[in-house]
Please model this.
Amino acid sequence: MQTENDRITALMLENKSGRTAVCAGSVIDATGDADICHLSGEGTVNFTPGNVLASWYYRQENGVNNLTMHGYAEPPKSYLGKTLSDPDVGGKRYSGLDGAELSGMVIDAHKNVLDDLLKRGLKAPDLTSMAAIPQVRMTRRIDGIATPDEDNDAYYEDSIGIIGNWKVRGPSYELPFGCLKGKKIRNLLAAGRCVAATDLMWDLTRVIPTCTLTGEAAGTAAAMTDDFTAIDIPALQAKLRANGNVLHKSELGLQKKAETKKEPDGSRMGGKARYEYDAERGVLIRCPSEGMPKIMDKSSLVWRDFGPQDDPYLRAILMGQGCWERLDTISAAEAERVLTEWGYPFDDE
Ligand SMILES: Cc1cc2nc3c(=O)[nH]c(=O)nc-3n(C[C@H](O)[C@H](O)[C@H](O)COP(=O)(O)OP(=O)(O)OC[C@H]3O[C@@H](n4cnc5c(N)ncnc54)[C@H](O)[C@@H]3O)c2cc1C
Model:
């Protein structure tokens, strides 16, 4: 990387043709790991908890193509004050930022796939596909002039678009232009999973729909200027709008979280919790704004802590994985209606 006066002047690339310098007016770091930011002296932040070993793969079994998801998405260790281990992949963590470690990660992942195949009594031809590259989620990101937060349901004047929360239905967040831009290099932006976000928000910004949003915004900006400190934000926003992007939640009639949290329950349920409902299995989960969720079965009608048999639900709540597609987020009023139908003894509570 060549830099001069807080600008990248050339990227040095090496491939079959030997060494080449690419001199560009503006540069977008879409390496996923903020490599260009790091090498150019732009500020970066590492994901300190590291990545679990992920070794997702497809296998043929009785004529059906099944996905095995070893190594779930994982929020930071401190999420809701609870540490979750992943029994499938052990406790080892990978930073994703070291060549030798990444090679070791691929070897560990492929061994994990082989062990699982053998355990199931399957053979090599039953393996349909597996990842040839390391499966990392959060590694290193740009230290942006803005760092959006999952809890901050903010309005951003410089919003470049709106993203959802892949773990729960409902919440949406504006993303500021500032999460693409660092504090030092004038002609550099980040896009994709290495844009700025707090650890919890990072788990939302790293997914593909958000990567497309930040990629489009960064590319559009790069076509406008080679000095992002002086970019005309309203002009950028006009271009993004013209391409069909919605920039502010108010344009969709979406209220801020604080307003939507006012439950019309009146009630015995308490308004500050989120409720998740599995109608098929008759399971209701109460997620308070602080502390661990409680779970209730239609057959027992008692709020209790999660047990080993409920682990997929806990994962669904904390990590958005496993059985998440079976859960519907419902209001406190709806939860009360469900409980009344089940015959829950409110008066005894
Ligand atoms: C197991 C797993 C399951 C997932 N499932 C989903 C899902 O179901 N839905 C979803 O939305 N998201 C999912 N994700 C997340 C999502 O796929 C990624 O976060 C997203 O694709 C990241 O896109 P990106 O373009 O920012 O980075 P990447 O896709 O990582 O692309 C970065 C590119 O830059 C290249 N590169 C990096 N460094 C250099 C360098 N120094 N020199 C040259 N080239 C370099 C890399 O080779 C790569 O091609 C999953 C992630 C994992 C690990």
User: Anything to note?
Assistant: The first helix runs from residue 35 to 40.
